[in-house]
Amino acid sequence: MLKMDINLTLNSLSYTSCTCICIMKYFNCLFHIKDIKNFLDEIKNDWNSLRNIEELRIIHEYSKTIKKITICFVIIIVPLQLVFFLNVFGNNILDILIPLNHTRPRTVPIEIYYFIDQQKFFFFFGMHLNIITSFGGLVYIAIETIYMGMIQHLCGLLKITSYINWIQEKIIITYDLLILLGLIAFSIFIFELAKSITSRTNTNEIFSSLIFVICITIYGFIPNHFAQEIINHSSNIFIDTYNTEWYKLPIIEQKLLLFIMQNNLKNLNFVLLGTMIASYNVYVMILRTAFSYFMVIYSMD
Fold first, then answer.
1. Torsion angle of C-alpha atoms 215, 219, 224, 227, degrees rounded to 10
2. Stretch 67-96: mean pLDDT, rounded?
3. At what angle do helices 122-156 and 33-49 cross, to 10 degrees?
4. Where are the beta strands (DSSP E) in 190-287?
5. How many Å apart are CA 172 and CA 90, to the nearest integer?
6. Which residues contact 44 (CB under 8 A, 6 or more apart)?
7. What average pLDDT is seen over the chain?
8. Fewer CB atoms < 10 Å away: N or C end of the chain?
9. What is the per-residue pLDDT for 237?
10. Across 54-58, 90-94, 134-138, 161-165, which has the greatest mean pLDDT?
């Protein structure tokens, strides 16, 4: 009985963590909606102020990157939502199209307990799950692509320092709690996946756990990837400035270049949890920590 209670608690905690991530992301965006609008207006002004063809070409290249990422998100999330819908209502549809002498079993890939008769109200139960997952996917695509677009814009401009503090204070700071929730959910979903594969009794649980593991892995990688891009671009500013023919410039412009180099001796970055600099290395460290927690949970089972 105790073992069943622990498994039920872990299962509920994993889905609750994912739900909290989406809710926090939505309300964080809602709370800073005016700041985000002002930031987007600044981006629009930056685009309108560019007159040089080469500058426009560079900024267009960065905008194409975020367009491709948005399309990839849609290509991944929309089919997953369709598969989830068919997984829930597939047997109901088959009962209508190809009826049998008996009703096909109606199950859902997510083990959630409601205080109602789930078989009697299965349609409302299934629609509720589909609405929640659709809302979560929509929130992720809309908000995450806006944030990533902002960071890509920073990479395309030389005036990075005028925006970096705003993103750190308004957006990145909320990722601290999201990382902790994602770490908990990821560890539990790996445990659920390993347990399901070992027992080979519940195909729906294998499917749902695998999908969540993949989604959380991608979710953790993308912000760290763009944070790494900021680090790379800020370090390139120093190198490019150093390699210019600065000695041919007037004294005043040489002093300006010296000022730029001094400001870029320390790479621009985003700080997570007060100490960790968002990058590929931190992403790998978070994955290692999640697998360590998974081993602890698995050894206790």
1. 140
2. 81
3. 40
4. 271-272, 276-277
5. 40
6. none
7. 74
8. N
9. 62
10. 134-138
- The rounded distance, in Å, linking the Cα atoms of 221 and 179 is 11
| Whether pLDDT at 52 is above 70 | no
Higher-confidence residue: 223 or 3?
223
9, 192 Cβ separation under 8 angstroms: no
The beta-strand segments (E) located in the chain are 271-272, 276-277
Q: Determine contact, residues 232/280, Cβ cutoff 8 Å.
A: no
| Sign of the CA dihedral with 8 first, then 11, 13, and 15 last | negative
Distance CA 184, CA 176 (A): 13
- Token pair belonging to 146: 């806006």
| Both tokens assigned to 140 | 């992720």
Token pair of 288, please? 């290692």
Residues 203-235 pLDDT 10s: 777 777 788 888 888 878 877 887 787 777 666
Rounded distance between C-alpha atoms, residue 172 and residue 93, angstroms: 44
Q: Which of 156, 89, 166 is nearest to 125 (CA)?
A: 89
Structure tokens, 73 = 């998100």
Helices 203-242 and 122-156 pack at an angle, to 10 degrees, of 10
| Domain limits, the chain | 1-161
CA distance 137 to 226: 20
Q: Which two tokens stand for residue 267?
A: 């790479």
Question: Which tens digit of pLDDT belongs to each residue from 247-271?
Answer: 665 665 555 555 555 555 555 666 6
Give the model's pLDDT for residue 97: 78
Structure tokens at 163: 């925006």
